[in-house]
Amino acid sequence: MNTRDIDMLRGTLWDKIILFALPLALTGVMQQLLNAADVVTLGKFVGKHAMAAVGNNISMVGLIVSLLMGLSLGANVVIAQNIGAKRFDRAHSAVSTAFVLSIAAGIFFCVVGEFLVAPIFYLLEVPELVVGMAETYLRIFLLGLPAMSLYNFEAAIFRSKGDTRTPLIALAAASGVNIVLNLLFVLKFDWGIAGVAAATVIANVVSAIILFHALLTADGVIKLHLNVLIIDRDELFEIVRIGLPAGVQGMVFSLSNLLIQAAINSLGADAMAASAAAFTIEINVFCVVNGFGQAATTFVGQNYGAGNLLRCKRATWVAMGLSAAFMQTLCFVILFFAEPVLSLFNSDPEVIRLGVIRLWYIVAPEMINVAMEGLSGAMRGYGISLTPAVITLICVCGVRVTWVFTAFAKIPTYATLMAVYPISWLLTAIVLVAAYVWHMKRLKPARK
User: Fold this and answer.
1) Fewest CB atoms within 10 Å of the CB: 16, 90, 134, 411?
2) Is 216 buried (19+), middle (13-18) or exposed (0-12) by CB count in 10 A?
3) How many other C-beta atoms can be found within 10 angstroms of the C-beta atom of residue 434?
4) How far is CA 424 from CA 393, 401, 403, in A?
């Protein structure tokens, strides 16, 4: 094994899950730094309307990125199960298939996204003050989707064998590039929001190239051979079967957030800017929860492939327990320092006040997400991906659509709108617990 690989099949679990999850959480934080650098640069040097323009794009960007990350998670599970079952030829075929799929998916969503930009902004009723800047940012950002897709699949390949540090190193380098280019393009060349978007695209290219080189020079089953790239139909089917519902699950959150973003837009530029700043902070808490959720996916995937169901269940509960401990600590720090941290993005008192409201409604009940991500992640590790996607679609979307058109329509305040997050999470978590128990009683052996 490579020194960065983790043996998921033997030994203690808690220490290995931490070694797997923390670099993965930090990778998520680094990904958010790409967005945070954009928001901070625009908020400090361009203005709150430019900051609000990026805020309008957060949900739309999340919609596409969620689907790409879900598909890449399918690659993670398929490769991990093959490694656990010692089907190394099939694992190598899955690596090759995932690489080709990543490029095709990135190009496809780039082209489709460019066609949908104008209709989406029209449907969202983005205010005239920010719509031009928002469209400029999104059109340039979409050009980097092939590189972003490639990075996510490459990172999933490394994680399937327990290496979460290599993707972290690649993204750390990209984040540094993004910050430097943001300042250069905005302060030196005065390119404004277009410069910030261009810096993000270049950073995505950098991270993809670094991991591409790492795959070419890797040892063992994940080594990429460009002269024998193939698409294995069986492995492609499994990647899509597991990854597409996972992507849809992420998209459901983003779709519901698009609806909420439209409601935020109706409250004015201060609410839009506050949401952009608060989201940039709160998403880092989710990165920790998501890191341990993906740890559950990969540990369960390898051990399920190896036929060790007892270790699969232990890995699930250990991952959730560790997630709760780390998450609670982070939440306390964020809520305690909410005002000074928000002021880093924008000094407007109203923006800060609304940002604090959002953080309390979303960060404080984050424990609910521990159950949601842990159980969803574990089920995906078993290859059960459709169930959590359907539950999320019904519970999250159903509650949020109903809330916006009833409670928020009756009391159209920022606090009323934010209350929909913990309410929808709680219902989803309750149903996911029942679904997990049901599937565990009927679990089938891994594919041969």
Assistant:
1) 411
2) exposed
3) 10
4) 11, 10, 9
The DSSP output letter for 37 is H
* Three-state secondary structure readout of 144-183: CHHHHHHHHHHHHHHHHCCCCHHHHHHHHHHHHHHHHHHH
pLDDT tens-digit series, residues 273-328: 888 888 878 888 888 999 999 999 999 999 999 999 999 999 999 999 999 999 88
Question: What are the domain boundaries of the chain?
Answer: 14-441
| Rounded-to-5 percentages of helix, strand, coil across the chain | 85, 0, 15
**CA 437: distance to chain centroid?**
26
Instruction: Tell me if the pTM is above 0.90.
Output: no
Q: How many C-beta atoms lie closer than 10 Å to residue 280's C-beta?
A: 26
Residues in contact with 430: Cβ distance below 8 Å, sequence separation at least 6, in sequence order: none
Q: 231-246 as b/e, with b when 16 or more CB fall inside 10 Å?
A: ebeebbebbbebbbbb
Measured between alpha carbons, how far is 393 from 15 in angstroms, rounded to an integer?
34
